[in-house]
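Hi there, hope your week has been kind to you so far. Do you reckon you could talk me through the fold, stretch by stretch? I've dropped the whole record in just underneath, so have a look:
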Amino acid sequence: MRILVTNDDGINAPGLQVLEAIAAEIAGPQGEVWVVAPAFEQSGVGHKISYTHPTMIAQMGPRRFAAEGSPADCVLAGIYDVMAGAGPELVLSGVNRGNNAGENVLYSGTIGAAMEAALQGLPAVALSQFYGPGNADLDDPFDASAQHGAATVRALLDNGLWDDAAYRLFYNVNFPPLPAAGVKGLKVSAQGFRPDTRFSVEPHQAPSGRRFLWAKGGAQAVETGAGTDVSANMAGHISVTPLRADLTAHDTLGVLRDRLE
């Protein structure tokens, strides 16, 4: 199997090394793992593509490239340039440092890369490592994802639902903030929502006197309800959430047609 690996934390991020090992196990000895990752951290860019300016790309080693662009740019570079002629059969994105559960899904460059792969008609999985008191101080905070990542991806490839719809399915996986030995297994989960956890901005003044705003997040260890991703992670489970890029609020269509048409 030919696998394209990317992330949003940058080509030197420790989580990318974890994902490369996962991909190598999935690809097998006869397979190929190609890395096209951002040259610099691109967290929070979502599904951005560099539509108005070019993306510089440089080879860093065998089957390893850094692109001066977003995670979605990296997927496009991998498909149409780096692996052109023998493209990927699977795209893996991550392993992100921090969760991409709940409302974080909407901001995540890790998710954006998997979304772009799905829009290109490829099977894709985004993987993220929740950080918390149970793993932040470990020698390897990625222990859960490193030990359980390959089995999770393989379970999805063997038993997951894959389709060829216009907005095809892709998967969002979050590993709990625990050592690998404490992980309780997989939970298929809906995307949750953390009440009262929103991004905001905080003003700061630089030594030059200029005023700047820093984006500021909220609490992450907040229950999101039974059957949802954050709560599954906090209970020690690996959450697996099927996603589509279709943002239509399908539950409202009938009522709106009655009211407006």
Remarks:
- The mean pLDDT is 97.
- The longest helix spans residues 143-159.
